[in-house]
Amino acid sequence: ATLGVIALNAVWIGIDTDFNHADTLLDAAPLFQVADNFFCTFFVFEWLVRWMSFKKKRFAFKDKWFAFDTTLVGMMVLETWVMTAILWATGAGGAWCGLGNASILRLFRKRRLFRLLRLTRMTRMVRLFRMMPELVILVKGMVAAIRSVVFTFCLSLTMLYLFAITFRQLVGGNEVLSQLYFSSVPTSMYNLFIHGTFLDSLGDVVRAIGAQSRSAAVIFWIFVLLSALTVMNMLIGILC
Questions:
Q1: Rg (Cα) of the chain, in Å, rounded?
Q2: At 233, which helix (H) or strand (E)?
Q3: Of 14, 50, 83, 178, which residue is least crowded by CB atoms under 10 Å?
Q4: Does an H or E element contain 23, and which?
Q5: CA 234 to chain centroid
């Protein structure tokens, strides 16, 4: 049941992102208010059940998953209940000892603050990894490959820089190629990365370069062979 609610909550986050345009839960449609309160209530209840299952409560937070879930539930309660209660209280005509018109209300009503709080919802999806050990294995594999991926990225960046300088020197007198693809070293690196590594519109780019300079076209093909077919395949091999 818990796994189903977590999955449903993950789907609901996407629905809420697309269709809930209110800045706060108080301003949202009733459907979104009911759904957010339901998920918050369920996860708080689940947290309480798990906490009560520990014979010695002080040992609960030694469980890393429980500590992580506590953080997630805490952020959910902060967003759904605490912030909403503060907005309701301060907007009720000075219920908080004159804070109704104070800067706290203006601060909490800023869109950016609530949008940042909404981003914390995505962390709840991490709980799916706990329920599916296969996903954890995949993530651990990615983490183990980070070092090799970083060095592969450095190699690719070095190649982009060297070939960008080569093209700048080679086509510096060609106004067409300079304006289209190689106006500066950073621009050359960007175009080599997009068209030579990711192979976006490769045919059109090669024909445009070849029409102006055959030697530049040959060097561009050499870059494609090294970057797209060699380095990128090495990266795939590392990850797989």
A1: 27
A2: helix 232-239
A3: 14
A4: none
A5: 25
User: Which residue's entry shows tokens 């957010």?
Assistant: 36
Closest residue by Cα to residue 69 from 124, 11, 8:
124
| Confidence at residue 156, expressed as pLDDT on a 0 to 100 scale | 93
What pLDDT is recorded for position 137? 84
Q: What is the pLDDT of residue 25?
A: 81
In the numeric block, which tokens belong to residue 103?
């800067």
Placement of tokens 């594999």 in the chain: 141
Q: Which amino acid is at 198?
A: F
**What are the pLDDT digits (tens) for 29-57?**
999 999 999 999 999 999 999 899 988 88
Question: Do residues 201 and 230 lie in contact, with contact meaning Cβ atoms separated by under 8 Å?
Answer: no
What CA–CA distance (Å, rounded) separates 189 from 171? 14
What are the residue ranges in the chain where pLDDT is below 50? 92-102, 105
- Phi–psi pair at 199, nearest 5 degrees: 60, 35
Using CA of residue 27, residue 23, residue 93, residue 82, what is the dihedral sign? positive
Q: How many CA atoms lie within 13 A of 140 on its CB side?
A: 7
Residue 144 contacts by C-beta under 8 Å, 6 or more apart in sequence? none
What does the pLDDT read at residue 171? Answer: 87
Per-residue confidence (pLDDT) for residue 94, from 0 to 100: 42
Question: Could you tell me which residues come within 8 angstroms of residue 208 by beta carbon, excluding any fewer than 6 positions away?
Answer: 177, 180, 181
